[in-house]
Specification:
The protein has 288 residues and is an alpha/beta fold. 51% of the residues lie in helices and 14% in strands. Strands 4-3-2-1-5-7-6 form a seven-stranded mixed beta sheet. Strand 1 (184-188), helix 6 (195-205) and strand 2 form a beta-alpha-beta unit. The protein is elongated, with a radius of gyration of 28 Å. It starts with 20 loop residues before the first helix and ends in a 5-residue tail after the last strand.
Length: 288
């Protein structure tokens, strides 16, 4: 994962694809504008609070010469600075990790920190306001967050609706392609979205939950891409020699996977947004 630019250790043998960073960061900013607005605001607050705490630009009463840097920071201010610095660090580090191993959903663990940061920024702003201004700001923030949340919900609903329609269309095309094959043996890999893949994935975690499900998976194997083995529901497991065995018996072997698995010699039959359909012609020399 560290030494390759793609996700799950795929891609070119480089730590990160720098050419993709601007586009990825733009996607993050577009998907989570509140999070990054708060991050920028807290970064500015950290600089301002730190500047005041250490007195970097303090001058004497005549305004003629700089004073020495304050030797001590009040304990309360030191605590505030530490909290802000920790939040900025966590949000920044999470962003860097996601830019390297990209996926919008990988930002989920730290998104809640945006609201905590927003509370800190508003609290610091309210210290210099009158009670009426604070009350007005509070109502304004609640209304704005409500509108913002509603917009996000509608946007995500539309995105999910379109993605589901696209996914179903792609799955239907792949199922039609499988039906056209001559008595195929189907191999599903990680994140394969067809029903047999889902059943096989569940059986692999709970093999005794319902042995009758094995009958639904005739001519199907689930390929474990990490252990490099095939899981045959109700029959056990097989190694890479299973593919030559099928090919020698004149079986057409099809692979369903969203990833380009380099351990197989294959030809692309169909590519959809969710996954691709390949015909396996052999096992790559390095995987034998």
């Amino acid at each position: 994962v560290v030494t390759h630019s793609g996700i799950y250790g795929s891609g070119a043998p480089e730590v990160v694809d720098f050419s993709a960073l601007p586009e990825r960061f733009l996607h993050l900013m577009t998907a989570y504008p509140l999070f990054y607005s708060v991050l920028i605001a807290m970064g500015g607050l950290l600089i301002l609070e730190g500047n005041k705490a250490w007195g970097f630009y303090s001058r004497d009463s005549a305004g003629e010469s700089p004073l020495a840097i304050s030797p001590e920071i009040p304990e309360g201010k030191k605590h505030r600075l530490m909290v802000i610095a920790v939040l900025v660090a966590i949000m920044g580090i999470q962003t860097v990790m996601v830019l390297k191993h990209f996926g919008l959903h990988y930002m989920t663990p730290s998104l809640g920190l945006g609201l905590i940061g927003l509370a800190i920024v508003l609290h610091r702003a309210c210290l210099k306001m009158s009670a009426s201004m604070v009350m007005g700001l509070g109502y304004g923030v609640v209304v704005c967050l409500g509108i913002y949340g509603g917009i996000l919900v509608l946007r995500e609903f539309n995105i999910l609706r379109d993605e589901r329609a696209s996914l179903y269309a792609g799955l239907q095309n792949i199922q039609d392609g499988i039906k056209k094959a001559n008595a195929p043996f189907v191999v599903g890999a990680y994140r394969c979205s067809l029903p047999p893949c889902a059943i096989a994935f569940g059986i692999s975690y709970a093999p005794e939950i319902n042995p009758g499900n094995h009958a639904l998976l005739q001519d199907f194997a689930y390929y474990n891409m990490w252990d490099k083995r095939f899981e045959l529901p109700g029959q056990g497991v097989a190694d890479m020699g299973f593919i030559p065995y099928l090919l020698n018996n004149k079986r057409e072997v099809l692979l369903l996977s969203p990833y380009l698995l380099s351990e197989f010699d294959k030809e692309l039959l169909m590519e959809t947004k969710a996954q691709s359909l390949y015909r396996i012609t052999g096992v790559a020399p390095k995987a034998r």
